[in-house]
C-alpha cells in the first residue's frame, strides 16, 4: 500500500512538473506572437508615416496615427513576459521609452512638428525596436 502511494505521488509530481513546463512554453509562444504583432504594427506605422512625411501631410491623420501608436506601445509595455524573454523585453521597453519621447517631441505645445518627423529619428528608433524580431522568433523555436 505504501509503495502504491509513493508511486502515485511520484507520478503526480512528475505530471505537475510537466504541466509547469508546458505552461512556460505556452507563455513564451504567446509572447512571441504578441511581440511579432507589435513589430508588424510598428513597421506598418513607419511605412505609412514615411509616405506622409515625404508628401503633403494631413496633420489630422498623422496625429491619429501617433495617438494610436502611443496606445499600442503602452499596451505592449504591459503584456505578460515569460522568464525566458525578460532580457529582450527590457531592451524593447528601453527603446519604447525613447520612441514615446520622440512622439511627444513631435507634438510640441499641441502642434505637430512635421519637420521633426521628416528628420526620420522616429523611424530609426522603430527600426531599432523591430531588430529584436529575430530574437523573439527564436523564443518560439527553442
Automatic annotation (TrEMBL):
Coiled-coil intervals: 52-120
Cross-referenced Pfam families: DUF6376
Keyword Signal: yes
Protein name per UniProt: DUF6376 family protein
Species of the source: Ornithinibacillus xuwenensis
Keywords: Coiled coil, Signal
Signal peptide span: 1-22
Amino acid at each position: 500500500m505504501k509503495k502504491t502511494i509513493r508511486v502515485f505521488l511520484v507520478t503526480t509530481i512528475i505530471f505537475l512538473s510537466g504541466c509547469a513546463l508546458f505552461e512556460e512554453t505556452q507563455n513564451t509562444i504567446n509572447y512571441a506572437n504578441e511581440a511579432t504583432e507589435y513589430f508588424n504594427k510598428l513597421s506598418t506605422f513607419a511605412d505609412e508615416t514615411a509616405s506622409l512625411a515625404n508628401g503633403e501631410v494631413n496633420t489630422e491623420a498623422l496625429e491619429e496615427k501617433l495617438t494610436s501608436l502611443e496606445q499600442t506601445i503602452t499596451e505592449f509595455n504591459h503584456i505578460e513576459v515569460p522568464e525566458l524573454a525578460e532580457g529582450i523585453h527590457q531592451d524593447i521597453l528601453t527603446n519604447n521609452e525613447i520612441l514615446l519621447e520622440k512622439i511627444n517631441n513631435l507634438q510640441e505645445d499641441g502642434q505637430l512638428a512635421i519637420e521633426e518627423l521628416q528628420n526620420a529619428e522616429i523611424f530609426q528608433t522603430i527600426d531599432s525596436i523591430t531588430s529584436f524580431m529575430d530574437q523573439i522568433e527564436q523564443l518560439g523555436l527553442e
